[in-house]
Design a protein that fits this description.
By secondary structure, the chain is mainly α. The chain is built from 18 helices and no strands.
Length: about 500
């Protein structure tokens, strides 16, 4: 029997199944929209609040919090049922949205984004885990493909919506708009999801959650300032690295002893769990690097408006939707999935390599093509990864297993965005340090560049393009590695019936 009575398990209640899927899709849409809605608005926000060199923290704070929130909410969903945990996640997400909207400074905005990310990360993983409660393994590929499409639409629609809002309204409406959407999702969940009784006596692994937060936070800080604000060999940097390793070791120690670990270490014995999450981590680096830096490039270098720069992420959305949906259909019809991420990540590597060659003279249509290819390369990884994990882990660990897929993708996103931000900032200093007459190139805004003398403007935009080149080259190399790692996946049969929740671990 499945863990969650009251939800359709055999596919006979088609109408109720559609309602449940609609509910979780709406929650997933809300949370993943929050990840990227600020990307095209960042130049406007930092123009008011200051801090171009700290721009990536507004993205990184959300991703870091979502990374930590994912396993916590995933575990809570396994223990107490998906409905109440989803509703709690909406509450946390909306609290962070209001704090962000009212932020008087950049770092208050970063704090609000952190709170928002805690709820958002939980909403994403628990909504995806709900699919495993109501759909047999053989059919999950199709529905996870659709959820991947929803994730892709909302993730890439975020920059479009953000650009439109800041062009016509104050940027605070990026966050105030979440309130009615969140309340609507809350009401839908109350109407269509049932709440099962708690799974016996349960306790949350607070120590593990705290140590995971500490380890990931330190890792993000190191990625953000390493080699730029602090040299890699400096005593303070070595202390940070040592503290990160100590926190990670303490986390492993705590998980071995926790009665309900936030991330059961037994899962790391499952081949598909390790392979899928490694590939997902690398894909997260490429995806959020593209989403963060392409709109910025189109605004600062190409001189487009925020709304128009967001349109250049739209092709990525189309590619992700097409590839994710197609991969889901292939999995459902054939039961085969192993080679899908192998070929898609190889395509992603090629797309990232092509984007590394983009400059001020590159035609806009060519940039759109490269971004489309990146979306096609990313799309299959999400649905295949979640399906492969859910098919390999015990049914009683589906929630935390699903959470891991999102967690590792977000680890890649947060670490990648922070690292790319540091590489970009270092590149700005290298390329433009002697061009601006002593001014700090990292404090520039799109408005300041547009007001420059034309000759200086050409030098600055060319320097920015050169500073971005290593970002995409590193993304290409990582995606190429992900293709080889995907070959290690074991193609386990996808069953047509719901699995037994008492299935033992591998």
């Amino acid at each position: 029997m499945a863990d969650h009575p009251g939800l359709p398990q055999d596919g006979t209640d088609a109408a109720r199944l559609k309602l449940v899927l609609g509910a979780v899709a709406s929650v997933l849409f809300l949370a993943s929209l929050g990840q990227t809605v600020v990307t095209t608005a960042l130049p406007i926000i930092v123009g008011e609040l200051g801090g171009l060199d700290q721009i990536t923290w507004v993205i990184t704070a959300y991703l870091l919090a979502a990374t930590v929130g994912a396993p916590v909410f995933g575990k809570l969903g396994d223990l107490f049922g998906r409905k109440v945990v989803l509703q709690a996640g909406i509450g946390v997400f909306l609290a962070g949205s209001v704090l962000s909207a009212l932020a008087p400074s950049l770092w208050v905005l970063v704090a609000g984004r952190f709170v928002q990310g805690l709820g958002g990360g939980g909403l994403i993983v628990v909504s995806m885990a709900t699919i495993a409660d109501v759909v047999p393994p053989r059919q999950r590929g199709k529905y996870q493909g659709l959820m991947g499409a929803v994730f892709g639409v909302s993730t890439v629609l975020g920059p479009l919506a953000g650009g439109f809002v800041v062009q016509h309204f104050h940027w605070s409406w990026l966050f105030f708009a979440n309130v009615p959407l969140g309340l609507l999702a809350f009401a839908i969940l109350a109407a269509v999801l049932d709440t099962p009784p708690p799974r016996g006596r349960s306790s949350l692994d607070y120590v593990g959650a705290g140590l995971l937060t500490l380890a990931l936070s330190l890792a993000v800080v190191i990625a953000s300032i390493g080699g730029d604000a602090l040299p890699w060999s400096s005593p303070r940097m070595l202390v940070l690295i040592g503290a990160t390793l100590a926190a990670l070791a303490a986390f492993v120690w705590a998980e071995r002893r926790a009665p309900e670990p936030i991330l059961p270490l037994v899962l790391f014995r499952v081949n598909n769990f390790v392979v899928s999450n490694t590939v997902g981590l690398i894909t997260g680096v490429a995806m959020f690097g593209t989403i963060t830096f392409v709109p910025m490039f189109m605004q600062v270098v190409k001189g487009l408006s925020p709304a128009m720069s967001g349109l250049f992420i739209f092709p990525m959305m189309l590619g992700m939707i097409l590839a994710s949906t197609t991969a889901g259909q292939i999995m459902s019809r054939t039961g085969r999935y192993r080679m899908l991420p192998v070929w898609s990540t190889l395509l992603l590597a090629a797309a990232m390599g092509l984007m590394a060659m983009v400059g001020p003279a590159t035609p806009n249509w060519m940039i759109a093509v490269w971004v489309t290819l990146a979306g096609i390369g990313i799309g299959p990884v999400m649905g295949v990864g979640v399906t492969a994990i859910q098919n390999a882990v015990p049914q009683r660990m589906v929630g935390v297993g699903t959470a891991s897929a999102n967690m590792f993708r977000l680890i890649g996103g947060s670490l990648g965005t922070a690292l790319f931000g540091a590489i970009f900032a270092h590149g700005l200093t290298r390329e433009l340090g002697g061009v601006l007459g002593g001014a700090d190139p990292r404090s520039m805004s799109a408005q300041a560049i547009a007001a420059m003398d034309p000759q200086l403007q050409v030098q600055v935009t060319e320097g920015i393009a050169q500073a971005l080149q290593p970002v995409f080259l590193i993304g290409a190399a990582l995606a190429f590695a992900a293709s080889f790692i995907s070959l290690l996946m074991v193609e386990l049969p996808l069953q047509d019936r719901m699995p037994d929740s008492r299935q033992p671990a591998e």
